[in-house]
Amino acid sequence: MKNSEEQAERRVGRGREPAAEMRPEEVLRLIDCLKEVGVEVWLDGGWCVDALLGEQRRVHDDLDLVVDLRDVPQLEQILSEEGYELLGGAAPLSFEMVDPQGRQVDVHPATFDEKGDGVYKMRSDEDWIYPAAGFTGRGEILGKQVRCLTPEVQMLVHTGYELSDKDHEEIRALRERFGVAPPPGYQPP
Fold it and tell me: Strand, helix or coil at 155?
């Protein structure tokens, strides 16, 4: 049993093997598959930033999605049918599904309150709130409009961890294009 758990751990997350690029065609394919069955998702993370900017600016090794917690079983079923396997985490917390090539989908389930805010349960057992207005973002991938978190919320999600060079670049690009304030306490490199 331990050997299969170790194999699963190597296949998920940063540095996983195998690993494959999450190409724009695959992003759109997965969004369309989910949309066909009525599962709404919002892009988060790197693909969200690139969609908001209307161009792919870097290679992505994953796809971050925010989804209503109630839709997780259907999302898991659809992604499984598309060749993705649950390899890390589990709802109601974030989880990762990876296909045999190493493409990874990071899922962030949220429970929506009466104001429309998305309450996301973090692994620390704290709640992180996606403001309702943050779900109104729209971006574009390969000329197709997609749902995204807004630039303002993308700034908020760049808090609480050590920022990498790509994070600093995303913050810079969002500030330049949309004039949004950097994350609270942000110190540029």
Answer: helix
